[in-house]
Design brief:
Length: 1119
């Protein structure tokens, strides 16, 4: 059993809910309406639709939400409806030309929108540029002001353009049960509905008798067909479940729907449903749209239509246009997904039954374990038959999409990836690309990626996939000039084809105005295969002699050359005469510098710097310093170059080399600058990296450790605005130089008061504690003697301190619940701290005031637990009395500024304010009994996780927008920072106050989580590390910096007037005096005190116990 498809589209899914609305277009500028909230466009009748255009000449207007904004946009006004109604305002259809956002205000004063509704409008549509806003309108309500403008999180550039605003009333229930269902008379049928005003639950039976609030519909078909009902729409705002029944019966006046045919809970968009069933002529069917947790203002879009299902290739559903999408069942009795396969045929016989043959391809699990895909080149006039079936079970639900792969660049020579400029570099993968055919000396069919380049001039072109970023098995890199019906033809005559360990290279002569097709392929493609393609314009000179060298206009430059057609030239290098093909380049610097010619990307070539050119013979070799490439060889030259002096570089293959293509980089190093500390190069920002050489430096004097010296050096100056630990290193260089740090520089340029406490890398790295406002002089010097001129790379950066993070792993990976710890940012030391015998899932957790002895965390029932890190025992602190599941903890964090533990709860609230299905409130919590004290209501429907920075600002995530928000801990004013750029919702979030970095954890898959850092300025999340084998990592919490004195001690604990056991050791000066007990192990004396108490009196026993607990008392307290 399966589904057959050909070229024809039947039973399209209706996509608009406003087809009957009259379009009224207002082009901006014809009148003053909409300029500000004092002169709004009034929504005077429903349904309402208007198209508006904003431009750079559109006046800006002001509003406060929650801070001042000035934007371009259009204002609308909506007055209360005579009856209670659910209203929806939307810019979803048609898709606007820019990223729109709808703000709603309850007041307008002097043209400024005030009293902003804090619930965000919801993105919608495939592009995400439209938005929708819904609210409950009641008789007597005040006027609302709607402002349509660009989104604050717009990343597409456009802030003005065209949008269409639609304002409609959602249909509501007419009765509480199936007997009062709305009638569906004709198909297709589309309705925007809301069960918000339904106050009574109705009964229905599907597997078991149950009840729920929702809306009822009934449909009686006039003929037998497959019927589809769907709530899949971006305007469906909640988990809208669908049920279909064939009976509605009365029992003592109470109506119950029974005969459940099918139901669905989350077919699409994670919140909407879709069902299909065989509807029999004249039978009445009852459709129920409901939810396990319906809120007051939920809305849904119900679409009902007929669908054609075919059973053989002779009655295939014909696909007539692209893109084509259909969602079907291959058996109406089943409603589960199944392991699909796709067969592709070119013929359907006239036999009875018909037989499909001419199989071209089979798609089996190309996408994942359940889904498949096929890509092929379709030829005009040929009919193709697609058969969707199963691997084992052939029944279930599937979604088939067929589209023109022309949208997938690179799949065919008909749709190549066009290269506009050279040099061109692009990385890619071809694991599942379609099979393509090309014909050079013979026909080849293979998977690959197609590129195209239009030659702007005659010359040589060089394409290569030889790179560390390529892992494919080397294959040919064919280049063609013709594509006919998807087949590459007319292969060019390659001057050279070279193979490397991974990938290959080809060079050919290009003719101006000709388009060349480059096909990246391999002998085999495997899962995880990738490549890097580079295309260059090749330097060449057929009659190349040293007297006709190619001029290099400026540096730095990266160039590709080819000597396949070079003439034989002669080089006399210090008495050794050689004649061979080669190529010459000439460069004249404008100032004194150190030049570096790098041929390390090429093998089997030699590099010479020629002193002079006499009678077309390169005479003598310049005495340059050869460097070493990472892969070995002598292809790196470094020499002093003086202003307005021409230098000739010769490149020639080594003996018996078969390679004809080469790559060279010519760059310069910092030189003749920073000769002494007075002339230091100024470092304005860290991190800082510079390449230099001491070759042209003058000798300068310095004093270090009471010793006066003089040597070549290059000086750099940095002054910090804050106290910080700084590291300077030349470890990335040829290790022939050292780094010294000076804090004084005399008027004669002598550096003194040096720091030379080297940490690693043979005197090439040094770290020091820089004080704010003090200039430091960083000197790079030769390690052994003057004239040691190897190039150096100086790196200067702030030394990040290591922070310790904790997180709780949820089953099924770890049972019982595990508390993990790891250092950040490396996470390599991820390890288990404790396991707790808890079956509950712990959602959010935090340490109190940096106390490492226990973490506090909430379970699903909103109960607070204390998790000891010493005994690994869990203790129930208490219940918050917030009912679960209607209320759920959002996040918990300790604020070092407020010295309070904050917690947020999100609850369903049927009587909440405008447009809020749920509300979120910020509390403080007493960790001794779980008692909460309300602070204020956070104006978002859900704030997921909490984290406090060093200034006391709270951060959270709006999971609907995947956006970072900042919350004022006193007023709950919310500022939207920006999109996370990740579809993951945070499992845990906390601030590393040691390094001032915001982190979050998210679940990657069933077994692993990932750690992100978040930019608190723009909101973007950056992947830091994977946390393997920990399952779902919740309750992220930081304890601070790992101290310099001991790994058990955190810097903020030292000398904070509280004795911390991890710092109560000699290396940490016994917590810098916070711990009064010092010296020998006091357990001996405690034991003695206990024994003495047994023989004397209970007073002594109390004294002894108190003495033992003295380690955790503030300093100065008597024991």
């Amino acid at each position: 059993m399966g589904w057959w498809g050909g070229r024809h589209l039947v039973g399209c899914v209706p996509t608009t809910i406003l087809a009957a609305v009259v379009l009224v277009c207002n082009v901006w500028g014809t009148n003053a309406e909409g300029e500000n909230c004092s002169v709004p466009i009034v929504v005077d009748v429903l349904p309402f639709m208007t198209t508006q255009v904003t431009s750079s000449s559109t006046p800006t207007s002001e509003y406060v939400c929650p801070i001042d904004h000035i934007k371009r946009g259009v204002w609308f006004a909506f007055d209360a409806t005579p009856n209670a109604s659910v209203i929806v305002a939307s810019t979803c259809e048609p898709v606007p030309s820019f990223n729109t956002y709808i703000n709603v205000f309850r007041a307008c004063v002097n043209g400024i929108g005030l009293n902003c509704s804090t619930a965000a409008s919801t993105p919608c549509g495939a592009s995400g540029w439209g938005s929708a806003y819904r609210w409950l309108s009641k008789p007597g309500s005040n006027r609302l002001y709607l402002f349509v403008s660009n989104s604050d999180t717009n990343k597409h550039g456009a802030t003005v353009g065209t949008f269409t605003l639609s304002v409609v009333r959602a249909e509501t229930s007419v009765g509480p049960d199936c007997n009062s269902a709305l009638s569906i008379s004709t198909l297709p049928y589309v309705l925007l509905g809301s069960p918000s005003l339904t106050k009574v639950s109705s009964w229905y039976s599907c597997d078991s008798l149950t009840s729920g609030r929702g809306m009822w519909f009934k449909y009686t078909p006039t003929h037998t067909s497959f019927t589809v009902a769907s709530t899949c729409s971006y305007l469906t705002s909640y988990d809208a479940e669908l049920y279909v029944f064939d009976s509605c019966t009365s029992n003592a006046g109470n109506y119950t729907a029974s005969g459940c045919i099918t139901h669905d809970e989350s077919f699409c968009l994670d919140r909407a449903s879709q069902v299909i069933w065989s509807a029999t002529k004249s039978e009445t069917y009852y459709l129920f749209v409901t939810s396990s947790s319906v809120g007051q203002r939920d809305i849904f879009t119900l679409s009902v239509w007929e669908e054609e299902i075919s059973s053989s290739c002779s009655d295939s559903t014909v696909i007539s246009s692209f893109p084509f999408t259909v969602t079907l069942y291959t058996d109406v009795e089943e409603a589960t997904t199944f392991n699909t396969m796709i067969y592709l045929f070119t013929n359907c016989t006239a036999d009875s039954p018909p037989v499909a043959n001419g199989c071209l391809d089979i798609g089996d699990n190309e996408c994942n374990d359940m889904m498949s895909q096929i890509k092929w080149t379709a030829h005009g006039g040929v009919t193709y038959y697609l058969f969707v079936t199963g691997v084992q079970n052939t029944v279930g639900r599937f979604n088939l999409t067929v589209y023109d792969a022309g949208n997938d660049e690179g799949n065919s020579c008909l749709t190549p990836i066009y290269i506009d400029t050279l040099p061109f570099i692009q990385s890619g993968s071809d694991t599942y690309n379609t099979l393509s055919q090309y014909s050079c000396s013979y026909s080849v069919t293979v998977r690959g990626v197609w590129y195209a380049y239009l030659a702007r001039e005659d010359g040589l072109l060089h394409a290569t996939t030889c790179s560390d970023n390529t892992n494919i098995e080397p294959g040919v890199l064919p280049v063609m000039s013709t594509c006919s019906e998807g087949i590459g033809l007319d292969c060019v005559l390659n001057l050279s084809t070279e193979y490397c360990v991974t990938g290959s290279s080809t060079t050919w002569r290009a003719i101006k105005g000709t388009t060349y097709l480059i096909f990246v392929t391999a002998n085999t493609w495997d899962v995880g295969s990738y490549y890097e393609l580079r295309l260059y314009s090749v330097y060449y000179n057929e009659a190349s002699q040293c007297s006709s060298a190619v001029t290099i206009p400026s540096i730095p430059i990266s160039l590709v050359g080819n000597i396949a057609e070079q003439a034989i030239s002669t080089i006399n290098c210090n008495g050794t005469v050689s004649q061979q093909q080669g190529m010459y380049f000439i460069y004249t610097p404008a100032q004194d510098t150190v030049l570096v010619a790098d041929l390390c990307a090429t093998i089997s070539f030699n590099l010479f710097v020629i002193e002079e050119c006499l009678y077309d013979v390169g005479q003598g070799c310049f005495n340059y310093t050869p460097g070493d490439c990472e892969e070995g060889g002598q292809h790196l030259a470094l020499w002093p170059a003086y202003a307005n002096t021409a230098y000739t570089i010769a490149i020639a293959p080594s003996s018996y080399s078969s390679f004809v293509s080469f790559e060279m980089e010519l760059t310069s190093l910092e030189a003749a600058v920073g000769n002494n500390c007075l002339e230091s190069n100024v470092i304005t920002k860290l991190p800082y990296t510079v390449s230099g050489s001491l070759l042209l430096q003058d000798a300068s004097a310095y004093s270090c450790n009471d010793q006066n010296s003089e040597t070549q050096a290059m000086y750099f100056r940095y002054e910090s605005s804050v106290d910080q630990v700084i590291t300077a290193s030349v470890c990335g260089s040829e290790v022939s130089c050292i780094v010294l740090i000076f804090s004084e520089c005399s008027s004669s340029g002598v550096a003194s008061t040096c720091q030379s406490d080297y940490v690693t890398c043979e005197h090439a790295t040094i770290s020091w504690s820089a004080k704010a406002g003090i200039p430091y002089y960083i000197a790079v010097m030769p390690l052994f003697f003057a004239g040691d001129i190897h190039p150096f790379i100086l790196e200067v950066h702030e030394e990040k301190q290591t922070a310790r993070a904790f997180g709780i792993s949820y089953e099924p990976v770890y049972e019982p619940t595990g508390l993990f710890n790891f250092s950040v940012p490396s996470t390599v030391d991820l390890s288990i701290t404790c396991r707790y015998n808890l079956a509950q899932h712990l959602y959010t957790g935090e340490f109190f005031a940096g106390d490492p002895s226990a973490m506090y965390a909430f379970d699903l029932g909103n109960n607070l637990y204390q998790l000891s890190t010493d005994t690994c025992e869990s203790t129930l602190v208490g219940s918050t009395n917030f009912p679960a599941p209607s209320c759920r903890v959002g996040g918990m964090t300790w604020s070092p500024v407020h010295h309070q533990m904050f917690v947020s709860f999100t609850c369903n609230n049927l009587n909440s304010t405008l447009n809020a299905i749920v509300n979120t409130t910020l509390y403080t919590i007493d960790i001794s009994n779980a008692a909460t004290t309300p602070i204020c209501e956070i104006p978002v429907s859900w704030a997921l996780e909490l984290a406090a920075d060093s200034q006391g600002q709270l951060y959270s995530v709006d999971p609907e927008l995947h956006a970072l928000i900042r919350i004022n801990a006193s007023t709950c004013e919310v500022q939207y920072i920006g999109l996370l750029g990740s579809s993951y919702d945070p499992l845990g979030m906390d601030y590393d106050l040691c390094n001032n970095v915001l982190y979050m954890t998210a679940q990657q898959n069933r077994f692993s989580s990932v750690l992100y850092s978040i930019d608190p300025t723009h909101g973007y999340a950056t992947l830091v590390s994977t946390l393997p084998s920990v399952g779902q990592m919740d309750c992220l919490s930081f304890l601070g910096c790992m101290g310099d004195c001991a790994p058990t001690c955190i810097d903020p604990w030292v000398g904070d007037n509280i004795c911390q056991e991890g710092c109560d050791i000699e290396e940490c000066n016994f917590d810098d005096g916070d711990c009064k007990v010092a010296g020998p192990d006091m357990s001996v004396y405690i034991t003695f005190g206990l024994l003495l108490a047994l023989s004397v009196c209970g007073v002594i026993l109390g004294y002894a116990v108190s003495f033992k607990r003295g380690h955790r008392q503030p300093k100065g307290k008597q024991h």
